[in-house]
Specification:
The protein contains 3 helices and 4 strands. With 119 residues, the chain is an alpha+beta fold. The protein has one domain: Glutaredoxin (3-Layer(aba) Sandwich), CATH 3.40.30.10. Strands 2-1-3-4 form a 4-stranded mixed beta sheet, covered by helices on one side. The longest helix is centred in the C-terminal third of the chain and has 24 residues.
Length: 119
């Protein structure tokens, strides 16, 4: 019975954290590389945005984009993962790889909230 209390509290904190957390994914590409666009709209539990660097050169500089496409995963505006194109200007990462990074962020938040409950 005591475990049920902790599980319920853990789930409550998890859902609170999931709603409160600001995980976002930005896809950077250029018009000349449109054939290698990467569809991030299917990613779950995050905000998604796409940037065409020739229209937004200041963002290219700010995020130090050296190749396109590049996908960056942010947690509360801090970069936590980056996926960059290979020499053929193609992204080798899969949508599953990116979604796994998002899941890691939420799992870390859940574990942290759960540890706070126990102490």
């Amino acid at each position: 019975m005591n475990y049920l209390y902790y599980i319920t509290l853990g789930l409550l904190f998890f859902f609170y954290g999931a709603c409160y957390a600001q995980v976002s994914v930005i896809h950077f590409n250029s018009e000349w590389n449109a054939d290698n666009n990467f569809d991030i709209s299917v990613l779950k539990d995050c905000d998604v945005d796409s940037v065409v660097i020739c229209h937004d050169p200041e963002l290219q500089e700010k995020y130090k984009i050296k190749s396109v496409p590049t996908i960056i995963v942010f947690d509360e505006e801090q970069e936590v993962a980056r996926f960059e194109a290979n020499i053929m200007m193609q992204l080798e990462a899969t949508k599953k790889d990116i979604q796994d990074e998002i899941k890691k962020i939420y799992l870390a938040k859940f574990e942290w909230d759960y540890l706070k409950i126990l102490h």
